[in-house]
Amino acid sequence: MEINHTEIDVRYAETDQMGIVHHSNYLIWFEIGRTNFIKQIGFNYADMEARGILSPIIDVQLSYKNPAKYGETVIIETWLKTYDGIRTTYEYRITNQKEDLLVTGSTIHVVVKKDNFKPILLRKTYPEWHQTYKNLIKEEE
Amino acid sequence: MEINHTEIDVRYAETDQMGIVHHSNYLIWFEIGRTNFIKQIGFNYADMEARGILSPIIDVQLSYKNPAKYGETVIIETWLKTYDGIRTTYEYRITNQKEDLLVTGSTIHVVVKKDNFKPILLRKTYPEWHQTYKNLIKEEE
Amino acid sequence: MEINHTEIDVRYAETDQMGIVHHSNYLIWFEIGRTNFIKQIGFNYADMEARGILSPIIDVQLSYKNPAKYGETVIIETWLKTYDGIRTTYEYRITNQKEDLLVTGSTIHVVVKKDNFKPILLRKTYPEWHQTYKNLIKEEE
Amino acid sequence: MEINHTEIDVRYAETDQMGIVHHSNYLIWFEIGRTNFIKQIGFNYADMEARGILSPIIDVQLSYKNPAKYGETVIIETWLKTYDGIRTTYEYRITNQKEDLLVTGSTIHVVVKKDNFKPILLRKTYPEWHQTYKNLIKEEE
């Protein structure tokens, strides 16, 4: 299975007064993992947007196991879970360098036109990407 | 059912280059709704922390229906869904002033000691709060 | 002098592990004060952007006197300091409800075209706004 | 002169609806540069906090020359400008990979006790750090 591994140094600004990383930041870390996953398989999200295509999120699930702390480096693992031509599901696993499991989660995305947020088919607007995702899913089966 | 209604003016800094509110901000809005819900039923989260009690999040579910935009005022509705003495589930519904449904979601929380993050029972450490939540849940049944 | 007063409840997510509001958030609070100042004198920044005009920041000065804390409501005072047709300087003063001075600062802005970030004259593209700022400055003298 | 160079990939969440990085994020990037500068000269800000010492910011100056954009990698240069035993001034310069100058700035810091935010002398509480800063400043003269 194609997995992207991204390392992140926890930022001071990401902590809150509990002394741990504020829970909203994991969504931002997922986004970084997802961007790097896309880069790893040969595409570029910034280019996709330049072509007038956006990939907004429609659903999130997050489970917090242990808190990340300032001074730590965390590892985000990102992989493609499902792709049906309309919806793409990514899964994530975040650990620290002691291999404590911190957070697991998933996000579901669609593809829309930048101008009007109307859904479009990746198969038509970005066929190479569509084909790559189809192949990645097939390898899993 | 006890529901808190909180109004929020979308901040410019909450938008991203899609021209909509970045999806991570809804978790911060949920937190504001939750804080105000707790205030509405007669307690105060800041006081709780001053007593050495934290209520970290262990699970999030979020569904994005429509994007919030800069210039809009959104309304967060927050209510208590379940409370079993250990875990508390809050639910949320965010709409704009045209009554478009923007986001729905839920968060699950536990209660821990500030010093060591060990779980504690609200029944023992903050019995009034425990009783209020028990009563709110009973009214629902 | 025309001053806008905006109240903000400190958000939990705005704190850091020092137990105080992270210093970057005051720039976001200044932005909220500025937006409300503009509303108070009869204009709307969201409309300005809809007309293809942006007002990016070119300079910031910030002095931190006392920290804001979770549980507090702060008051942002915003006023127009200078306007020369090209550059606009706003000043800010943030206090808490005990009237402790927390932060003072200023921001300088220009006006540019949304498409290409080229500078434009407010006098030509939004003459009512230009005239209002000229009048506000004159009243000061 | 001792300069730390830190590379940062712009995060999607750091953009705003102008299509550029929101101006508040540069303060967070300065903080990352400062943390890495401290690491480079042999210390660790997380350890300093564990010893009960905080280094809050008391003054910021920021000049925005060109906007950072999503898809770019930026380089933060951080160096020590002045240190008088009480106040430390760091300076920063942020560029992109085309060597466009994006932002310059400075921050001034004091050292305080974590418990009560009372000022302390680094010379007494952390003499090695004090000596290193004295030496760095002397080399400049």
Can you give keywords for this protein?
two-stranded antiparallel ribbon, 141 residues, 5-stranded antiparallel β-sheet, alpha+beta, homotetramer, Thiol Ester Dehydrase, Chain A, 4 helices
Count of helical regions of chain A: 4
Main sheet attributes: strand count, strand direction, barrel closure of chain A:
5 strands, antiparallel
Quantity of strands of chain A, as a count? 7
Largest interface: A-B, 23 and 23 residues
CATH architectural designation of chain A: Roll
Apparent shape of chain A:
globular
- One letter per element, helices H and strands E, the order of chain A comes to EHHEEEEEEHH
Radius of gyration of chain A: 16 Å
Oligomer: homotetramer
Overall SS class of chain A = alpha+beta
Strand order of the largest sheet of chain A: 1-4-5-6-3
Q: What is the assigned CATH homologous superfamily of chain A?
A: Hotdog Thioesterase
Q: Poorly predicted ranges of chain A (pLDDT <50, ≥5 residues)?
A: none
Please give the share of residues in helix of chain A.
25-40%
